[in-house]
Amino acid sequence: MHEHHGDHVTTSDVPCGGDCGCGIGKRNRFFRGKHMNAEAFALDQGYLIGRRRLVNRAVLGWGVVYGFPISGPRDKEPLGARDVGGGLGIDPGGREVHLVGPVTITPANTFLATGGRPRPADRIAPGRYLLSIHYAERRVQDAKVGDDCGCGEPEKQFVCETAVFSLEKVEECPCAQEDCPPCRCPEKPSKCCEHGGRGCACLCEWAVEGPDDCPPDLCEWNGLWIDPSGGIPLACVLVALEGEQKDDRARRCDPIRFTVEDDCGPRRIVKSNELLYDLLRGCDLTRIAWISWGKWHRREARIEWEEFARMFKGGPHWRVQDAVETEFVFRFTGPVVADSFARRDAVAITVIAIDQSTGWELVRRVPIARLDTRPNGDPTKLPAGTTDQVRVYIAGDWAHDELEPGRSWLSDREFAVEVELRGDLVRDCREHAVDANTDPHQRDGAPSGNGTAGGTFFSTFRVAPKPGAAAAS
User: I need a labelling partner for 164 at 20 to 30 A (CA). Which of 5, 216, 296, 380 fits?
Assistant: First the structure.
C-alpha cells in the first residue's frame, strides 16, 4: 500500500494498488502532456509489483523454491549456532524472498512471532519453535527533500529487499504437506466427465477459492518493513537454557543456539515445472540397481545346466543345511527397509517345465528358506534398519533333491525359471514402495522402474535339462 507524507509518496508494500472505485486494477494511462508526480509513479510501480505477486501466489504457490539449508551437524553439535544458507522462496503474499550467502540466526535478524506485534528474540524461553524466513525491506541512502522553510526530513532513495527470521513457539511440529482437498459429488455431472474427464468436477471445485487479493501490509520492525504473518516455514528447532542461552547471555549479535529437530516436514515446497517433471518420472523412488543373473535376463538362448547349478553354494552335501546360499542377489539404488524381507513373500522363484505327453506347463515354486539382508558395502553408511541388497537362500532339502547328481524333476526336459520381486512389499528409507516395475528396454534387467511406486520385477530365462543318472555317472 502507499504511505503519504505531505506531498511525497513511498511504497512500503504494493500488493494491491488502485483505490476503492477501481479495485486492484488502477494504473496510469499515458498521453502527451501528462504530468507525473511521485504518487503517479508509485501507483504504476505498485500495479506492476502487485500483479507479479498476484501471479506468484495464485499460479506458483508459496513456499521454498530452492535452498535455505540449515547448517550444523546433528550429532557432534546438538546445540549450537546455526546459519541459513542462500535460497529463494515465495511468501504467502507472493513476495520473493531471496537470500544470498549464509546468515547466522541472531536476535538482530530474528523476532518472536506471537500472532501480534513482533517481540524481541534476545531473551527466548526454552521450548519447540517453528523457524520461518520472511521478506523484508530496508530503506537506504538519504536524500534531502526541500520544503518552504528548508528544514524537511530526508527521504530514503532506495528500497533494499532482504530477509529476516521468526521463531514461533509450537506444541508439535507442523506438517507442510496438507491433506488432499475434499471433493463432493456434483449435483449435475458435466458431460465432459463422461468422456475421460474423470477429475474435472474436482478441479472445478478446487479452483473456486483463490488467494487473498490484498495480503497484509508491511509493518515496521527493527528498522525494517516486514509481514509478521507471512513467513515461510523452514524447520522445527529446540531451544534450551544452556551456556550462552541463559537470560543474562544475550547481546543482539550473539547467535541464538538451538537444535534442529526437523528441517523437512514443516518446509513447504513450491512445485516448479522441473520438480514436477522429476516426480512424474519417479526420480524420488528407489529402484532395483542390479541383479546378479543380469546376463541371463530374458535371453533367447538357454543356460547350460552346469552354469545354472553354480548359482547354488555349498554342494554337494546340501541336505545337512537348513538354508543354502545362492547367487540370486538384488541390489538397490538406495537404502531399503530390511524388515521388508522378513516374511520372504517379497521374492519368488518359480520353475516351469513342459509335460512331455500333454504339453502342459508344470509350475512349481522353489522353497525360499530366508532372504539375507546383509548390505553389499559398509553398513555404517546406511541408515539403521536398512540395507542395499538382498540375497536368496533356498531350502537344503530342495537343493539336495534337485541339484545333486541323479534324476530329479528337472531332468530330461528344458525348463524355465521366473524370478520376481514384489515392489509393493518393499519400502525404502522414506517409506515409499520400491519402483520394481520391469523395464523391457533394459537388456540386463536393471535399473528397474517406470516412474510409479510398487509393481513387480519379473525376470525369466531358460535352462537346459539336468543330466540324468547315466550321464552324471
Answer: 5
